[in-house]
Design a protein that fits this description.
The chain is an alpha/beta fold. 33% of the residues lie in helices and 17% in strands. It has eight helices and twelve strands. It has helices spanning 81-108, 124-135, 152-158, 177-187, 228-231, 233-238, 257-267, 284-304, and strands spanning 11-12, 15-18, 40-41, 58-60, 65-66, 112-118, 141-147, 164-168, 194-198, 215-221, 241-245, 272-275. The strands form two sheets. It has a nine-stranded mixed β-sheet, with helices on both faces. It has a three-stranded antiparallel β-sheet with strand order 3-4-5, with no helix packed on it. A hairpin with a 4-residue loop joins strand 4 (58-60) and strand 5. Helix 1 (81-108) runs parallel beside helix 4. Residues 12-71 are annotated as: Disordered. Keywords: GTP-binding, Hydrolase, Metal-binding, Nickel, Nucleotide-binding, Zinc. Residues 13-24, 38-61 have a biased composition (Basic and acidic residues).
Length: 305
């Protein structure tokens, strides 16, 4: 079990294989202050720490305590910053090898894979359901669903007529490339189709794990606050597209779309952004245009390679 986030073993619906146990820590590089205020400084402490290993943390002038400023970018009790980096590199190198294998398989078969990431409640599944219904005559789509428990989201996808497979991660808080590779093998997406991977609702850990996808798509809803990109910058830095969902609620909420997009672009200046409502369909055509153009561009690059 992961000492940092509690990741454990996984099961794939209808699949007897269990992925190997893996213990890992997650590092996150924060490049900007959370609140853009206060000058950081480091100082010695005169209180006792009873845990082994480094305990690098920083106090800012506003009184907050930051555990993400060490060389590993994360704190694990009893583990030095150097050891965290060693463990992280070992685990991520294994994941990256699986991801590269997935990517080769997807590109060889003309499968356009997207990794949808968000916090819980952003409306990811509703977005995928609407997209499948609207594009069913234009594009074949299959789905890999990730949740800690239940097959509820896979059932919603199957109700559209699309094929879906559920991965339950148990205590795990994200999908990894090994899980996705086995799920894709069982699902067998057809050549020239799109494969949607709906990751576990979590804006932290999925940022570090390449699944072999063509793009990460981060979904943020307007009920979550404009500062989410600043609070969880790694996810927005890793994504190529941000979909701002639930736009139909804008008349009822005090949410500043321009400020949210500006915050996201502070983290990732190359991030593309769309504002949509999966419930009403507002803005969805723009997403479909991005999807089809990106799939065509990816296919053209694969042919040239």
């Amino acid at each position: 079990m992961c000492s940092a986030c509690g990741c454990g073993t996984s099961t794939i619906e209808g699949h007897k294989h269990q992925s190997a146990d893996h213990a890992h820590a997650h590092g996150h590089n924060h490049q900007i202050n959370d609140d853009g205020q206060g000058q950081e400084h480091q100082h010695d402490h005169d209180h006792d720490h009873h845990l082994l290993g480094d305990h690098d943390h920083h106090h800012t002038e506003n009184g907050s305590v930051h555990y993400g400023r060490g060389i590993a970018g994360v704190h694990v009790p009893g583990m030095s910053q150097e050891r965290i980096i060693q463990v992280e590199r070992r685990i991520l190198s294994k994941n990256d090898a699986h991801a590269a294998e997935n990517r080769r398989h997807f590109e060889r078969n003309g499968i356009f894979a997207l990794n949808f990431v968000s916090s819980p409640g952003s409306g990811k599944t509703s977005l995928l359901v609407r997209t499948i219904y609207d594009l069913k005559d234009r594009l074949a789509i299959s789905v890999i669903e990730g949740d800690q428990q239940t097959s509820n989201d896979a059932a919603r996808i199957r109700a559209t007529g699309a094929r879906a497979i559920q991965i339950n991660t148990g205590k795990g808080c994200h999908l990894d490339a090994h899980m996705v590779g086995h799920a894709a093998e069982d699902l067998a997406p057809e050549a020239g189709s799109a494969l949607f991977i709906e990751n576990v609702g979590n804006l932290v850990c999925p940022a570090a794990f390449d699944l072999g996808e063509a793009h990460k798509v981060v979904v943020l809803s307007i009920t979550e606050g404009e500062d989410k990109p600043l609070k969880y910058p790694d996810m927005f830095a890793a994504a190529d597209l941000m979909i701002l969902n639930k736009a139909d609620l804008l008349p009822y909420l005090d949410f500043n779309v321009g400020l949210c997009i500006a915050n996201a672009l502070r983290v990732n200046p190359r991030l593309q952004t769309l504002t949509v409502s999966a419930r009403t369909g507002e803005g969805m055509e723009a997403f479909y245009a991005w999807l089809e153009a990106s799939a065509a561009s990816r296919a053209a690059r694969s042919k040239e390679a």
